[in-house]
Design goal:
alpha+beta; 5 helices; 260 residues
Length: 260
């Protein structure tokens, strides 16, 4: 976890003023880039697992139309101008919000169930780290649904779409229609075998392709020990799914790898 993210999370947890604490065979060739999963190598927190107060959070796969219910809070002046978890500077007058696990740049409609008022926000931060709350709104967004005075409100969240990477504006309706219908945060896989000879890799790929609905691919990598052909089992929707499958022990010695 980088320093900026740590400070952002620390600030959120300290803020309490009316807000929260906060298939077919495939063959791919590329250079070796140390694919073994290692939390220490992850310098950017926006789409990777992270730990707050001893609890690990796993950003999740979501689709357009997904709905969630819970309590909203808001955060304002104390954080204005400070960095959010994805490296942007928080502007309490922008239509943004913090969520513990939604992908960054998810566009969400937030409806206050007390009065029926709704607004649309873009996720650009992590939080609120209070079990009874699911979203932290900017002051502007909280004003739109009339919850500044109460500090919190019961809400419904609906996923409308996804802004592109690096985008800091909410897309219009036409742009949202063209956006992906779902987002997978990262491509997690299990490395189940490694060979110096392509034939062994091909036999393993064919043997285990479509195991439990997952797909096998061969990665041709140039490693410090020479050219290697690694067989990966792919198709996991999250790191946690890959970890759970690995724990079944079907593939002895398998380990989690990640493709950006």
């Amino acid at each position: 976890m980088n320093k900026i993210f740590f400070l952002s999370v620390l600030g959120i947890t300290l803020f309490t003023s009316g807000c929260s604490t906060r298939g077919p065979s495939s063959y791919i060739h590329h250079k070796y880039s140390s694919p073994t999963y290692s939390q220490k190598k992850y310098s950017h927190p926006t789409m990777r697992p992270y730990v707050v107060h001893g609890k690990r959070y796993y950003p999740t796969v979501v689709s357009v139309g997904d709905r969630f219910r819970g309590n909203a809070s808001w955060y304002g002046p104390n954080f204005h101008g400070k960095f959010t978890s994805n490296g942007e500077r928080y502007n309490m007058w922008d239509m943004t919000a913090a969520h513990k696990t939604l992908p960054m740049n998810t566009i969400v409609r937030v409806t206050n169930r007390r009065n029926g008022k709704s607004t649309v926000v873009r996720i650009n931060d992590r939080g609120p780290f209070v079990s009874t709350r699911i979203i932290d709104l900017s002051k502007a967004a909280a004003s739109k649904i009339d919850m500044i005075g109460t500090g919190t409100a019961p809400v419904t969240l609906e996923v409308l779409g996804f802004a592109g990477k690096g985008k800091n504006k909410i897309p219009n309706k036409k742009q949202l229609k063209k956006s992906p219908k779902s987002v997978e945060l990262s491509s997690f896989a299990l490395q189940i075998a490694s060979f110096s000879n392509i034939n062994g890799a091909i036999r393993t790929q064919e043997k285990y392709n479509n195991t439990d609905g997952y797909t096998t691919v061969i990665k041709d990598m140039q490693t410090p020990n020479g050219r290697m052909f690694k067989v990966w089992l792919k198709g996991f929707k999250s790191e946690q799914e890959a970890r759970d499958y690995k724990a079944n022990g079907i593939f002895k010695g398998a380990f989690i790898v990640r493709e950006d």
